[in-house]
From TrEMBL:
<protein>
    <submittedName>
        <fullName>PAS domain-containing protein</fullName>
    </submittedName>
</protein>
<dbReference type="InterPro" id="IPR025944">
    <property type="entry name" value="Sigma_54_int_dom_CS"/>
</dbReference>
<dbReference type="InterPro" id="IPR027417">
    <property type="entry name" value="P-loop_NTPase"/>
</dbReference>
<keyword id="KW-0067">ATP-binding</keyword>
<dbReference type="GO" id="GO:0006355">
    <property type="term" value="P:regulation of DNA-templated transcription"/>
</dbReference>
<feature type="domain" description="Sigma-54 factor interaction">
    <location>
        <begin position="163"/>
        <end position="393"/>
    </location>
</feature>
<keyword id="KW-0238">DNA-binding</keyword>
<keyword id="KW-0805">Transcription regulation</keyword>
<dbReference type="InterPro" id="IPR000014">
    <property type="entry name" value="PAS"/>
</dbReference>
<dbReference type="GO" id="GO:0043565">
    <property type="term" value="F:sequence-specific DNA binding"/>
</dbReference>
<dbReference type="Pfam" id="PF25601">
    <property type="entry name" value="AAA_lid_14"/>
</dbReference>
<dbReference type="Pfam" id="PF13426">
    <property type="entry name" value="PAS_9"/>
</dbReference>
<dbReference type="InterPro" id="IPR003593">
    <property type="entry name" value="AAA+_ATPase"/>
</dbReference>
<dbReference type="InterPro" id="IPR025662">
    <property type="entry name" value="Sigma_54_int_dom_ATP-bd_1"/>
</dbReference>
<dbReference type="InterPro" id="IPR025943">
    <property type="entry name" value="Sigma_54_int_dom_ATP-bd_2"/>
</dbReference>
<dbReference type="InterPro" id="IPR009057">
    <property type="entry name" value="Homeodomain-like_sf"/>
</dbReference>
<dbReference type="InterPro" id="IPR002197">
    <property type="entry name" value="HTH_Fis"/>
</dbReference>
Length: 475
């Protein structure tokens, strides 16, 4: 008896020494109870005492079975193994009815010996679990609906529509893409800088069965050569100085099940080309610092603005890799070889910038389109896009006319590759002066006569603007 009294005194002292912070923390749990190695109650939080309609002081030191006859905590302690997610039913004295909740029972082990046990409920009522399950089920149904909607939209929108142009060269490329997009064959896109190779790569991915998986892009020329390998194949933690603790997956793993675009493949170092060839042949990657190959299923698209056959002759590109990535080659023509596509491209870009800038540019006048078709566009479609962007800024609520095209005329006058009659040059000079006057006057009206602001919009120095005002007698 003295032993029991001493034990009860120790437990009471233990409870009394609980700080308010600890008590508040333990009371935050739904139902929480601690027992010692003899399955006697050492602590019970307030929510649990309220359900059982007992006082904490009255149950301290009592066998748990005498207070909660249905508890399985003694059996769990005897087994030494936690019991997670068990259902338990008790009579709730607060509500006057039975309640069921999820209970986690855990033995407390120190130095291999069970020194006590703890039980805690994660849900006050099973109804909460059903509510949670219903929410998860609803989210799954919504996700399925979203996936169906995305698939329907994908079928309604033809990815080839984003390849703008009706010229014979573009139509031929579209036909080839339609044939081979779903084949899984490696594709090599060749063409000058700015022709829009990524647009064609996007169409290839979107038309394939991999369209709902990742489309990963990496520019081999934009990443330092000593980092390119880790970007492509990933690395394990501690593989090199500065490596992330948990490692990092590479682009091949990220594109697993989808498509990987290697832009500017001609810039890839020779040693890395060998590793890439092995990955394509074995269909597996090995991270830097790793020892276990990782299987990958990737459709590869490569693009370049270089002559790879010349690089092979120069010893800068592997012939075997070239033949591996060049199963199908799509040679994208420069804009100068498809000038008939300029009207369609201009219309596309005008609509694009109207959406982006909430502007209302009405289109491009035929006179401007004719002017654009005289230019050789060394920057190709990208250069045309930037020209249209500037013209849309200058004409946010009107049609793009010749008066806004002073800078384009400067391009034309410096383009010595044009073939036109000599007489046309003098008329063009006259037209240029007239357009320059109109543009300066229009810009001054937009800026309420603020010459400094007008010069910034025109992209010229303020002193140049003053010279032109004097030259053309503009007040």
């Amino acid at each position: 008896m003295n032993f029991l009294l001493h034990f009860e005194w120790k437990l009471r002292r233990f409870i009394m020494n609980f700080t308010p912070l600890w008590t508040a923390a333990l009371n935050a749990f739904s139902n929480f109870i601690i027992v010692d190695e003899h399955c006697r109650i050492a602590y019970m939080n307030k929510p649990y005492t309220e359900i059982l309609n007992v006082q904490l002081e009255d149950v301290i030191g009592k066998p748990i079975k005498s207070v909660i006859p249905t508890t399985k905590l003694p059996e769990v302690m005897a087994s030494g193994k936690a019991h997670i997610g068990a259902l338990m039913t008790l009579y709730d004295h607060k509500t006057g009815k039975d309640i069921s909740f999820v209970c986690n029972r855990i033995p407390l082990i120190e130095d291999g010996e069970v020194i006590g046990g703890v039980a805690i409920s994660t849900f006050n009522e099973v109804g909460e679990i059903y509510n949670l399950y219903s929410e998860v089920e609803k989210m799954q149904q919504q996700n399925e609906l979203y996936q169906q909607t995305i698939e329907q939209l994908r079928k309604q929108t033809n990815p080839l529509d984003y390849i703008i142009g009706t010229s014979q060269a573009i139509q031929q490329i579209k036909s080839t893409i339609a044939i081979f997009a779903n084949s899984g064959l490696s594709i090599l896109l060749t063409g000058e800088t700015g022709v829009g190779k990524e647009v064609f790569a996007n169409a290839l991915h979107q038309l394939s069965s991999r369209s709902t998986s990742n489309f990963v892009k990496i520019n081999c020329a934009a990443i330092p050569k000593d980092l390119l390998e880790s970007e492509l194949f990933g690395y394990e933690g501690g593989a090199f100085t500065g490596a992330k603790k948990g490692g990092k997956i590479g682009k091949f793993e990220l594109a697993d099940g989808g498509t990987l675009l290697l832009d500017e493949i001609g810039e890839m170092p020779l040693p890395l080309q060998s590793k890439l060839l092995r990955v394509l042949q074995e269909k597996e990657v090995e991270r830097i610092g790793g020892v276990t190959p990782i299987k990958v299923d990737v459709r590869l698209i490569c693009s370049t603005n270089q002559n790879l056959t010349q690089l092979i002759q120069d010893g800068r590109f592997r012939a075997d890799l070239y033949y591996r990535i060049n199963t199908i080659e799509l040679a994208i023509p420069p804009l100068r070889d498809r000038l008939d596509d300029i009207p369609d491209l201009c219309n596309f870009f005008v609509q694009k910038f109207n959406r982006e800038n909430s502007s209302y540019t009405q289109g491009v006048e035929q006179e401007v389109l004719a002017l654009m078709q005289q230019y050789t566009w060394p920057g190709n479609v990208r250069e045309l896009e930037h020209v249209i962007e500037r013209l849309c800024f200058l004409n946010p609520h009107s049609t793009i006319g010749i008066a806004s095209c002073d800078f384009l005329m400067n391009k034309l006058s410096g383009d010595h590759t044009l073939s036109r009659p000599a007489a046309a040059f003098s008329s063009l000079q006259e037209q240029r002066s007239s357009a320059e006057i109109d543009l300066i006057r229009q810009t001054l009206r937009q800026t309420d006569g603020n010459k400094a602001k007008a010069a910034r919009i025109l992209g010229i120095d303020r002193t140049v603007l003053y010279r032109k005002l004097k030259k053309y007698h503009i007040d």
